[in-house]
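the two lines:
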Amino acid sequence: MIRRRAMKLQFRDGASCLPLAALGLLALIGCRPAPRAGKIDENSVYFEVGTGGLSEEGRWNLVKVTARAEAGIFEGEVEVSGRDSGGRPAPESFKREFSASAAPQAVEIPILPRGWEEVVVAFRGGGFLQQFKKQGDWPVSNACRILAVSDGPFLPGALAEACRAWLGLEQNQQIALRTLPPRQLPEHFLGYDVADLVILNGASLADSDPDRVEALLEWVRRGGAIAAVPGPSWAGKLPQALLQLFGLAENPQPLAPDPETEERLKMVLELPAEARLPGGFYHLELLPGALAHQGLFLENRFGSGKAFLFSFAPERDWLSKDPGGSFQPGGLARAWQRIFLQSHLRPRPFSGKIAQQVESSAIQALTRFAGFRYPSGIAVLFFVAGYLGIGFVALGWFFHRRKRLERMYLAALALAVLSSFGIYRFGLLSGISSLRADAVVLAVARPGAAEAEAVSWIAISSPNRRTIRPRFPEGISSRVIASQPLPREEAEEAFSSQRVRFQVGQPKGPLQLLEQEYAFRGQSMQLPPLLIHPNATRYCRFNHPHDLGGELQAQWIADPGGEKKIEVTNGTRFSLRLYLLVGRELKKEISLKAGEKGTIAEEGAAAARTAGIRSGLGDSPISMEITAELEAAVFEILKKSQPEERQDLLRLESSRFLIAITADPLFSEEVFGPIGHSVGFFLLELGEPEED
Amino acid sequence: MPAPGSRLARLLFPLAILREIAISTGPILRRELLSFLRTPKAWRITLITVGAASLLPLFAWPSPGEPMAYFRAQAAFVTYSVVLYIALFLFVPLVTGSAITIERERETYELLYNTRIRPAGIVFGKLFASIAFFLLLILLTFPMVSILYLLGGFEVWDFIKALLGYLLFTAILGVIGLWSSMRHQRTSRAILEAFGILIALYFGLSICTSFLMVFFMTVWRGVAPPNLILILSWILTIGVPALLVLWMMYSLLRSARYPELAASRREERRKLKQAALGTTPPVSRTWLTRQLLDRTVNGIPDGWNPVLVASVRSQVYGAAHSRRMMFWGLAVLIFIISGMIFWFFLSGMGVESYVSFSIGAHVLLYSVALILPGLAATGLSGEVESGNLDFLRGTLLAPFAILRGKWLAALFGISGLWILGGLFGAAHLPFLLVKNLGLLIPIYFLAALLLVSLAASSAGILASTLARSTVSALVLAYLLSFGYLLGVPVLLQFFAFWARFWRFNSAYFPSLSPLWEFSQIISTQGFRATKAAVEAHFSFFLSLVVAAVVSAVQLKLAAAFYKNRWERDR
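prediction for all of em together
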């Protein structure tokens, strides 16, 4: 009694000291009044989609967001997401850390919009969430997208003619050309993905941010095409990065001044005779692998991409070892044609269209690999019988005997919760017995490259709910770009005759896609953790450089008898079955084990295969499981890459491809877990023919 | 505890109130829920329900390697949801609608009211006690549904959303039922009102939302902002029911604290007597009842069923007002629907004129199916509970005459809806003839209305002869009625679609029920002269014959059970 009264008193006293106690509690848990977090000034928010105004749905685009804080400092992140025509949020979101003060801050975020009718930029931080929306103004799909890095306007001239000649376009139709000042180069290489061809129009990038120049180089390294037209700013020393890009090296020996050359240079650069030439003279040499066409037009492989450079030397003799001629009007047109064709024909698997062509077939093949595994009907029957038997009959009998039948309901409720949780979390009754990943890989390999540019579709099956954290070998992880298969889009008649497009959204069930949250930190972006549901197969897609285990080389050679042959050197990772595509037919196949060499003769080949490459995997156990659609889709890409139909424009044998197929595991177990079925399609670009 | 009057005490006052309500709720929960859960009857109901739910995954389970198994899972889940929603729609208002009226009919509400239990405690106790068993059944059947998760097609959130939806739906129905129960002395009237509100709420709101969408897509296209339709449809489908339920909760608590009705039946009887002895006729007397009752002023003529006359008289002096409200409410609803659709039709918005007939006919058919089993079931079991049956037993009336009287009285109770149906069909005749759809459709509608009425009322009568209490009779009546009219055809179609061993033509399963068959014939426009039309006519006639047979069998069984009980109790 006394104790209770004491407690009561204590409680009363405590009530009078409530504010003090609350402060004490706050101090105890370490809380203190937080500094006032800055809110984003709504009037300062500005964002634009596209690189230099070039944007396209289904490709990586750049969003540049500018904002400042209203007061204080805003610390948080900015998220770009999309909504479809029905106002539903898209499954992808793109994030980047963002901090701003009273001064406006800008940040660039690559995005991959699909069916976005509305672009939403959200600022999160300091307990605030501020959203800003803008209608997605996506242009119609362009057949050719050119991004010119230039201080002034770029006149396409012969390039436009080349585009039209190849694509059969009408005047000013479906060629998108945008100009970007050199100081506004994208931070991330994905910022260039929207372009088919980047042209440096007189810009030497000497004054540009080296990180941004590196992003441009990374894009070319991953399969991009770049061409440079030198201008006055190229008179000084070029950045080392650009020299590498165009396959040039500076000769350490300085070139002696020559009055006659100086005079010619002034004439070329339109300088007065009494003016002094900027910089000094130096001598550039071609690196191995770089080609000089007609002496005034350089072509260089850079990673998986290609770089072209119009000569900036006043005379052909100045380009070392070149016996060629000089620029003529016809020669200039032919040079632009080659640049355009190389940029257009080169299959870049991570570009939207190529991936889309193969995607449905790849997922169909993966679905066959993964199978549809469900618990047997008998197992379900046993589960139902067990649930009813234990939860209601046995427990009912037990509690009825104890005259506490109502407790049976509590026990049955606990059993219901436990079994539901067991199904969800631990895959109780799951038909899949172990974690497994199946893979379909489509890659393009340049001659002599040790890495192929690949797009992979992965199907991960798991018996229980788990999160997969893919771990790539050192050096590759930062270059992997997560993606996912496209949601389906359908058209439906609305009440009136106006067609309304809507997205079906994420398919569920066996064709479960992963919700992807892209978080950019600096240049790199790693694959996000992948949540796998019990007894489900989920799909993801990502682009990455694939290690070939050494150079995979396929090159034309001429044997002493004069017959043309292709010599293929395999890397050390997997055995390949190779096919030669001539025109629109598959001609000859050979098998190469890892590290082996082999040759394919052009003439006298085996009977042509026109029906596809169904036996590509030979005796592999999965050969029968691969759908004809997948092979046909890959074959179709190859056919489109063949320039044979346009002999008048190309006449270059180097644009032919070999197709290589492997059933060897393409990923180690540490990446996704144990690999089940794996099939890889490599498109090998043949090396340049040897000069006769 | 803080000192009374202190600041802390004032701060904690709402909590203290809640605590007291919780304490008050306890005894009612213990008395009603626990005592029910301890019975073998509750155990049997649970076992049957969970067992029935377990048939869904078993029948929907795919054969190994089937690529589209998640379609099966989704179909099974949809079936589960539909059956569950229909069951909740029928049974929750029944149980909650009788929660307080039963106390009044047993004359125990006065006792309950005079205990130390807070009025709010009575409301919450009755509400929780009534809906808790439903919630328990939903949770216990859920593992059967969660197995479907392994087939894909769902996110966990889908299940959680569905579960929350079931729980919310149960709670809303519970509040509406309890509100009606609080306002009435008799169970039948409370249930009638509860279903009337639900019909108005769900049919009315869904029709309003549909019209709104049509307006947005046609008249206001491009004028109104696109998000407005979303906001308005949310207001209509979520906001209006939520506000209604909140107001009902407030009204319930107020009525519990300050009761407007007499707590005992004695007061009600006194009022009835006064009304009967009064010089002026009751304001709610209608033309039809006048035709019947005016001939019985000087006594019931020979050959007339006295139970029928007494029941009609009781209806006139009791629930006639509610029935007139229901009649006029439905008439206004149908008039508005027809008016809107004709306006759409005349404005050339691509809406066919027979759509108005289709919607109105469905509203009437489902209203009859929803109201009649309850009326028929409470008609007889109410007499049993109030002890009038002993009085009837002392008369010269045969058991079947009593049964027939109650059955006809139940049918008489919805005669207003028949009249409404006839007027409705006649009003649509010119439009149907203009569209060359013929006279058959209104005739089919009236035939379906008649057969649905017979089947539903006979199910109610059968249930009342089988059950011992009014609530049991109500539950059984709706189980039998909707089991036949909706449940059996739906489940048979589901099982026939997925079960490979089934060899019958599942197209004829709707023919079991005129309710379904009428929907089919309207949706497929089977009245047009095609080969399919002949099959549609055949199916419809088949459904009428089946309904007539089912009604006859139910009445025969009711008579047999009632006679046995009569003999046994004698």
